[in-house]
Design brief:
about 80 residues, mainly alpha, 3 helices, about 55% helix, about 0% strand
């Protein structure tokens, strides 16, 4: 992010930072068991729960709303000089 953040808009950078917990939640569903094979430790995977799914859905929904393009506002009508 240090390299690429200056090259994206503030909204895009905000989306990237906001979506990170969703990726982390997906990784913990399968990654600990994979690491367990290499380390020999006991690292159980997380289980998909309702709270995890709702939280991820809310984050994804917020990102979609943030990217939703609205038509530009017209300037207010005023007296003609």
């Amino acid at each position: 992010m240090n390299v690429w953040q200056p090259r994206v808009s503030a909204a895009e950078a905000g989306m990237i930072y906001t979506i990170e917990p969703v990726f982390t939640a997906v990784y913990v569903l399968f990654l600990p068991a994979m690491l367990e094979q290499f380390t020999g430790g006991d690292y159980p995977n997380e289980h998909l729960s309702t709270a995890m799914a709702v939280g991820g859905g809310l984050i994804l929904g917020a990102n979609l709303l943030m990217r939703w393009k609205r038509p530009p506002h017209l300037p207010p009508a005023g007296p003609i000089p």
